[in-house]
Amino acid sequence: MSTVTADPSSKPRLSPRKRAQRMRWAQYAVLGIVTILAISMANWSQIQSVFFRGDMIHETLTQGLPNAFKNTIVYTLGAFVFGLVLGTMLALMRLSSVGPYRWIATTYIEFFRGLPAIVVFIAFGLLPLAFNGLVIPFDPYGTVWIALGLVGAAYMAETIRAGIQAVPKGQVEAARSLGMPTGTATRKIVLPQAFRIITPPLTNELILLVKDSSLVYILGLSAQGFELTKYGRAIANTNANLTPLVIAGFCYLLITLPLSMVVRRMEARQKKER
């Protein structure tokens, strides 16, 4: 009876876990080398002069930054509320049994999801030329709320529709069997549960609106109506230095990072509840 002997020169094969660990350490090493090279090759004096100049930081913080920060938040919240109301209506129309409602909602959603937000802002900036005497209430806030909200509504509508469809149909049928009208069942049973499900993605939409509010610079605004990007661009162009834009970017992070943390916590809580 023959026996099979192992080749002493052959090396033992690594387990998948060991291979993954070595690959991870190799990636860390490559990242460390690239970081060290970038730090050693960078012209730090030039970077400090162009992006982090001390006098420009002081000027940016003390001139009109609080007002621009406030305007960014007001623009975003107004557009979010407008988009949320319109998006809810579009979602219900998209799910309606009435054909024309579905066609109108589908056309609107596909149109504004495929259209860049900057084009919508340009169109609203030209509206007074197309319609003499047209006055949008609370201008420039009203103009920004409508322009940004129209785009946001198209995305929110699809999110809300998915949330409505995630609610078990048996709950609506039970409400109908008790004599509750369809509209009342939708308002009191379906929508509250749907919004509870879609709160994290809706918060992501709010973050996107914060960043899209930077497109307000397309509109001709006075200094009192400047948001962060417009304010940073104005000072940067005046002084031929990019430090104001860097400060404006950090201000956006002050708004979006806490919202991102809230989204992660809500998603984690929903996973635990499942």
UniProtKB/TrEMBL annotation:
The chain crosses the membrane at residues 25-44, 73-93, 114-136, 245-264. Residues 69-263 form the ABC transmembrane type-1 domain. InterPro entries: AA_ABC_transptr_permease_3TM, ArtM/GltK/GlnP/TcyL/YhdX-like, MetI-like, MetI-like_sf. Pfam families: BPD_transp_1. Belongs to the binding-protein-dependent transport system permease family. One of its GO terms (biological process) is amino acid transport. This is Putative amino acid transporter subunit: permease component of ABC superfamily transporter. PANTHER family: L-CYSTINE TRANSPORT SYSTEM PERMEASE PROTEIN TCYL (PTHR30614:SF0), MEMBRANE COMPONENT OF AMINO ACID ABC TRANSPORTER (PTHR30614). GO terms for cellular component: ATP-binding cassette (ABC) transporter complex. GO terms for molecular function: transmembrane transporter activity. It is found in: Cell membrane. Keywords: Amino-acid transport, Cell membrane, Membrane, Transmembrane, Transmembrane helix, Transport. It comes from Phycicoccus elongatus Lp2. Gene3D superfamilies: MetI-like. The lineage of its organism: Bacteria, Bacillati, Actinomycetota, Actinomycetes, Micrococcales. It is a multi-pass membrane protein.
